[in-house]
Design a protein that fits this description.
It contains three helices and no strands.
Length: 84
């Protein structure tokens, strides 16, 4: 195989990655923000265990875990695991 084919293949691969990276990066940023929000709510709930913090944590957990791909019973199990 000629070196020109290898170089052309590498350049095409890098161009495709460069063009598709903003889409994946946006999803990663959203997930990172949800994760940070979830852990901040978790710390607040652990320091002050009251109903308001529990509701806020449940909402943050539901948003974060649903964004990671959990659905249905697995989502509910994971949220219950957070509170136990």
């Amino acid at each position: 195989m000629k070196i020109q084919y290898i170089v052309a293949g590498m350049v095409i691969t890098l161009a495709i990655l460069f063009l598709l990276s903003p889409r994946f990066r946006r999803n990663e940023k959203e997930l990172t923000l949800l994760e940070a929000s979830f852990f901040e709510r978790l710390k607040l709930y652990q320091s002050e265990n009251n109903e308001e913090n529990k509701n806020a944590l449940e909402i943050a957990a539901r948003e974060y875990f649903s964004k990671t791909g959990l659905k249905g019973q697995k989502l509910e199990d994971k949220i219950n695991e957070v509170f136990n």
